[in-house]
Amino acid sequence: MHLYWRVIEELKYLGETWTFTNPSFKRCYQRWLTKNAGAVTLCALSGINPGRGHVSFKWKRPSLN
């Protein structure tokens, strides 16, 4: 599910949206988000890219991967 979260965040960065249509996939994704809510919130609030270090640029919106 982490991979899907990263893809969704990149799509948000590009201004796109992704809608899940499979009910079981939605349920699994919501469970994963609930389980990892603390880590997702920390990444969203701090602007830290775990895969790329602690660098952000002023002219670009930071990605959450």
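Above is the first protein from milestone M3; the second protein from the same milestone is given next.
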Amino acid sequence: PKDGWLGTSFIADNGHRRRPYIDAVFGNARALDREGTRYISQGGRLATFWEANGALKAALLDEGVPADKLVRGITADSFRSLYRGL
């Protein structure tokens, strides 16, 4: 979630990278969904891209998506819906 490449810190403001990242995820959502459980979650278990990607959740929060919409997690379909609302 604290991915320095996307976030803002005392050292650097990389917020300009968030939207292109989110756009790229949207453009590849179907392929990412087809990958299945090949990613490692923050708990160290196999998970889908959507379950394992804390950086995406943080980027969505920073782009204005309300936290209550991310509490249950993200799926490819819910991400598409959130993306269209940005």
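Note on the second protein: The radius of gyration is 13 Å.
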